Amino acid sequence: MALLNTLEESISGAVLKTNPEETAGALNAGLTGWIRDQIFPLILGILIFGTILFVFYGTFLYFTAYGDEARAAQAKKTITYAFIGFLIAAVAFGATTYVRRVLIGKESEQKILNELQPGLPAPETNPKHEFVPSDQGQGNGENPLTNE
Q: Band of the pLDDT at 126, cuts 50, 70, 90?
C-alpha cells in the first residue's frame, strides 16, 4: 500500500496539467522516478534475500549429505549458482545506475526535463562554483569561495 501512495505522490502533479504533452512528460518523469526510488531497491532486496535463502539451502544439503558425493556436489552447485546469480544481478543493477548517473549525467537529465516541462529553471553552468576569469565573458572575476 505504501508503494501505491508514493506512486500517487509521484504522478499527482501530472493530473493538474492541461496540455497533453505536459501531462505525458510529467507522468513519464513521475513514473521513472517512482520506479527508480521504489521498485529498484525492492528488487535488489528480493535478490539479496533469495541469495541468502539459496546459500542456506545449499549449506543444509551439504551438512545432510553424510558422505554422499552426489548430494554434496549438488549442494556446492546450489551455493555457487546462488552467488553467481547475485553477482549477475548486482552487475546489472550497477550498470543501470552507472549509465543513469555518469553517462547521462545531471545536466542531461535537466535538459530533458526542461524539454518536457519548460517552466523548470535551467541547469547551472558552473555547478562547482569554480573560479571563472572575467576575460572569458562569465562572472565578474571574483572567486565565490574565497571572495577574491
A: very low
Is 79 within 8 Å of 58 (Cβ atoms)? yes
What is the reported pTM?
Answer: 0.57
For residue 3, the Cα-to-chain-centroid distance in whole angstroms is 16
Q: Is the pLDDT of residue 127 over 70?
A: no
Cα–Cα dist 96/99, whole Å: 5
Can you give the pLDDT at residue 86?
93
Q: Measured between alpha carbons, how far apart are the two ends of the chain, in Å?
A: 54
Phi-psi region of 98 (alpha: psi -120 to 50; beta: other; left: phi over 0): alpha
Q: What are phi and psi of 115, to 5 degrees?
A: -70, -35
CB 76 within 8 A of CB 100: no
Residue 61, C-beta contacts closer than 8 angstroms, at least 6 positions apart:
71, 72, 74, 75, 78
**Do 123 and 106 meet the contact criterion of CB atoms below 8 Å apart?**
yes
